[in-house]
Design goal:
heterodimer; A: alpha+beta; 14 helices; 47% helix; B: mainly alpha; Na+/H+ antiporter like fold; 16 helices
Chain lengths: 372, 403
């Protein structure tokens, strides 16, 4: 039982990780410059943390523990600005977006670190195909039991986060017809999907120990679930979001997750249910494929609902849980995005229609990220 | 019996046979280098040139080489165009230390080579011309290795940008020094200034006009790689031809064409240059011919000074790059690798030596031998250096072959 202690943290505290694209400024393809960028960033003061990712054209930023939208955005701005300054010295572009529109997976080089080499050895081409860019949102939980409960309640809302963050319509040089193609790459991993329905932390610990004895996993990192508990942080980690095109959108997604968590735990409008997981995979696909236009199945009401309307309705109910003025405004803006069905994916497709060049689309995306 | 249907003997082999010979010798030597010596093919091409050339076995004489010059012009033109289109002014503006390291690298390699010649007691003006030729990195070798290894990354970009600048400097400096040399023999002060100005402004203007046409036509053609390649070859040939007719600098015109078409093309109508199999054949000709420019006589006359030239050049570039490596955001070991990528000398240097010798035969003789020996030493070794550097920096494609 004590093998997997859950660090108690303050409820609803926030942390964000963002995987970003490192681009050359010639044709805006991914470029293997993460190590050089990290080297110059080591000597430049910046908030948060900046780390390598599995391939050399990726870099990950993460914030410290935050309490609301304003603080989160301030920290993200600080990290972004420091990174952009160094990237410009090295003639690199940085962009959000869940997938690079035209990189070729076999062009990617695995970052020189033991863990990534191991993943490449184990998963073969899946490792390089994993050159996709997500936002992870951590929500603080005061116990393992809270984490397990919150995780199962949250599963009903996974399509919201997919559709609101969707920014990977293009992959390997082609339009995928998906709003978020990125999750298809995650799904290829054997331990992807959702955590099985459990009662509490004790049951989860048993499950984890069992999987470890069977040698399916070595650590929690081996689960590629959409939401997974992170006992060493004392959080649950929502992993379905594409990295949005702007830091404002990233902060707004985190704010929505936090407000939703408060709503679900404090008002208990729903109870965890196996029904959620019966429709889970299909809803997840619909949200990836059609984005805000998806018609998902509401497992509690047992009927179809337009995702954009479901989001608008939920945003309305959770708005009062926003921690600060700026957060409330950000949620309001999300309602407009949902109502107008204008996700980042839609903007990217519009840009392509204008310029007819994926290279130009990435240049524009880098502009959104670097100059806000 | 009338045997007039038979050809006259000895046979006069036309330029088709010459080009075939160049290609076959290049292929054979390149493959031998790759398979037996485990060295890059490019080095083999140069050796083929040396062996076939007028100075050695003499299978290719100067007239025959002249016939193949058309292919060399296209090949060099494509290379210089690409060099220009990869030059990124914005980067030098955003990172002034990068510009500083470019200036240092140029100044020190110039200074060190000049010092070596001064040490050997050569006339200073000629020493300066040889030093100015030596500041330029051989773009054909650099870009070909980059393409061959499908290299991409910050070191690759730096190498290309520094190379573009040191090539521009080299052309300008050689032109001005030639004008000075001119002054020494036929004193007329205005030429000292007028010639470089005519050359630079005229070539830039030509490059500009060609870039306008290129981008407009590319837009009209649409994104068709095959069609755009034809267009590019045409525009490159046009630029080379007009530059020659107007006695402008082919190098500056083509660089300008590259730089300006990239900058004018905000909608990205131009597709990136892919050197397909056809272009590869042109590059074989390029390297064989530049190898043929060197003779064994040059080598025996200039080898030791040539070696000193190479070492001085290496040291100059090394110190120059190292000096501002850190402030420009480059780690020390990467700076050392960057120096290796700047080492090649090739066709452009040969062209400059030939131009100089044509205008001023006084320059020929030993000095030309020294520079050409250096070119040969580097044609044999620099491809390997560039390849090692790009590999060492981890910027070659995961599937690129070692040789």
């Amino acid at each position: 039982m004590t093998t997997l202690p859950f660090k108690e943290s303050e409820r609803y505290t926030l942390g964000v990780e963002l995987e970003l694209q490192v681009l050359n400024s010639r044709d805006y393809n991914l470029t293997g410059a993460a190590a050089d960028l990290l080297a110059v960033l080591e000597r430049a003061p910046h908030p948060g943390d900046i780390k390598p990712e599995i391939t050399e054209g990726m870099i990950e930023i993460s914030t410290s523990i935050q309490n609301g939208y304003a603080g989160l955005l301030t920290e993200l701005t600080g990290i972004r600005d420091a990174m952009v300054k160094q990237a410009e010295r090295l003639n690199l572009g940085i962009a959000g977006g869940g997938a690079h529109p035209f990189q070729k997976w076999h062009d990617q080089r695995i970052f020189d670190a033991q863990r990534y080499k191991h993943i490449h050895d184990l998963y073969g081409y899946l490792a390089k195909q994993f050159t996709v860019f997500g936002q992870h949102i951590h929500i603080g939980c005061d116990s393992g039991d809270t984490a397990v409960r919150l995780l199962h309640l949250f599963s009903r809302y996974i399509p919201h986060f997919i559709a609101l963050s969707a920014s990977s319509p293009f992959f390997q040089g082609a339009d995928t017809a998906f709003a978020s193609s990125r999750l298809n790459n995650v799904s290829a991993f054997p331990l992807a999907g959702h955590m099985p329905l459990m009662e509490d932390w004790a049951e989860f610990t048993d499950y984890f120990e069992h999987m470890r004895e069977l040698q399916v996993v070595e650590s929690m990192k081996d689960f590629y679930w959409d939401i997974r508990p992170k006992p060493e942080f004392g959080t649950i980690e929502v992993r379905v979001c594409d990295t949005p095109l702007t830091i404002e959108r990233a902060a707004a997604l985190a704010t929505y997750a936090r407000a939703l968590a408060r709503f679900l735990l404090e008002e208990s409008p729903l109870e965890p249910s196996a029904d959620v997981y019966r429709v889970y995979g299909y809803n997840r696909f619909l949200a990836c494929r059609f984005g805000l236009d998806a018609e998902i199945i509401d497992p509690y009401e047992r009927r179809k609902r337009l995702l954009a309307e479901d989001i608008g309705y939920t945003l309305g109910r959770v708005a009062r849980f926003a921690e600060d003025e700026e957060g409330a405004t950000a949620l309001l803006r999300f309602r407009e995005v949902a109502a107008a069905r204008r996700s980042d994916s839609v903007l990217l497709r519009e840009r392509l229609a204008q310029s007819k060049s994926l290279s130009d689309v990435v240049r524009w995306a880098a502009d959104q990220w670097m100059r806000g | 019996m009338d045997l007039s249907f038979l050809p006259d003997f000895p046979l006069r082999l036309g330029n088709l046979v010459v080009i075939a010979l160049i290609l076959l010798a290049g292929l054979a030597c390149g493959e031998l280098f790759r398979r037996v010596l485990l060295l890059p093919r490019i080095s083999g091409y140069a050796l083929a040139g040396l062996l076939l050339g007028p100075g050695t076995f003499g299978l290719l004489d100067r007239d025959m080489l002249g016939d193949a010059h058309l292919m060399l012009d296209i090949a060099l033109g494509l290379i210089l165009f690409e060099l220009g289109s990869r030059l990124d002014w914005q980067w030098f503006r955003r990172n002034r230390w990068l510009f500083a390291s470019s200036v240092a690298e140029i100044a020190l390699s110039f200074g060190f080579i000049f010092a070596v010649f001064a040490l050997f007691g050569l006339p200073w003006l000629q020493a300066a011309i040889a030093a100015a030729i030596g500041t330029a990195t051989g773009a054909p070798v650099l870009l070909l290795v980059i393409h061959d290894q499908r290299a991409d990354g910050p070191l690759t970009d730096r190498a290309v940008n520094l190379t573009a600048l040191n090539n521009v400097f080299s052309v300008v400096a050689v032109t001005m020094l030639l004008a000075l040399l001119h002054l020494e023999y036929r004193p007329r002060v205005t030429e000292l200034l007028m010639h470089p100005v005519y050359l630079l402004v005229g070539s830039a203007l030509l490059g500009y006009l060609a870039s306008v046409a290129l981008v407009l036509l590319a837009r009209w053609l649409g994104k068709r790689e095959d069609l755009q390649f034809i267009l590019l070859v045409a525009m490159v040939l046009l630029t080379v031809g007009v530059a020659k007719a107007l006695q402008l600098s082919m190098l500056v015109s083509l660089l300008a064409l590259g730089v300006m078409s990239r900058n004018r093309d905000s909608q990205r109508h131009l597709m990136p240059v892919e050197f397909g199999p056809t272009a590869q054949a042109l590059f074989v000709v390029l390297f064989v011919i530049s190898g043929a420019a060197v003779t064994l006589a040059d080598l025996t006359a200039g080898a030791w000074v040539g070696l000193a030239y190479v070492v001085a050049r290496l040291l100059g570039k090394l110190v120059g790059v190292m000096l501002f490596a850190r402030p420009s955001g480059l780690r020390a070991h990467k700076a050392a690798l960057l120096t290796l990528t700047l080492m090649p000398m090739s066709a452009t240097a040969v062209v400059m030596v030939e131009t100089t010798a044509r205008f001023y035969p006084e320059f020929g003789g030993q000095l030309a031998s020294v520079v050409l020996s250096a070119v040969l030493i580097l044609e044999l070794t620099a491809p390997l250096m560039v390849q090692l550097a790009l590999r060492g920096a981890g910027e070659t494609h995961p599937e690129a072959q070692w040789r």
